[in-house]
Amino acid sequence: MIYWEDVELDVPRESSEHYVLSAANIKAFASEWDPFPPHVDEAAAARSPIGQLFAAGVHLLSITIRLSHSIPSEETASIAGRGWENLRFHRPGVAGDTLRVRVTHVERSPASRPERGILVSRFELLNQRDEVVVSFNANVVMLRREPLAA
């Protein structure tokens, strides 16, 4: 079991799986969750500033989370997520992109309860050219191995 104190900082780790965006999976996701015309209609996408069909942001976030679960790891003492910060969509995800995730734990801080700590992790969704497509910091509450003295 990996506790808050055990987490190595500043060591990037990448997903063992990747995800290939296709016109079909972009349209399928967007049809149900974000039917913005350039996500579901290739003619509308061609008229957009991107010039081609591109994935919805929520689709890219879902891919990021899914791929992060393929990073090899021992079981962790995570309790709950506290939220995401600094969410950025750097470039579009388009049909033909092969995506993978890199996660780097960047900061640990004590939590309000002595048996818990906060871990901040940087998530980056990368395409086949190593360009960052999406990035954000995730804050997670974890159990400490040794609670702080009162």
UniProtKB/TrEMBL annotation:
<dbReference type="InterPro" id="IPR052342">
    <property type="entry name" value="MCH/BMMD"/>
</dbReference>
<feature type="domain" description="MaoC-like">
    <location>
        <begin position="12"/>
        <end position="108"/>
    </location>
</feature>
<dbReference type="Pfam" id="PF01575">
    <property type="entry name" value="MaoC_dehydratas"/>
</dbReference>
<dbReference type="InterPro" id="IPR002539">
    <property type="entry name" value="MaoC-like_dom"/>
</dbReference>
<dbReference type="InterPro" id="IPR029069">
    <property type="entry name" value="HotDog_dom_sf"/>
</dbReference>
<protein>
    <submittedName>
        <fullName>MaoC/PaaZ C-terminal domain-containing protein</fullName>
    </submittedName>
</protein>
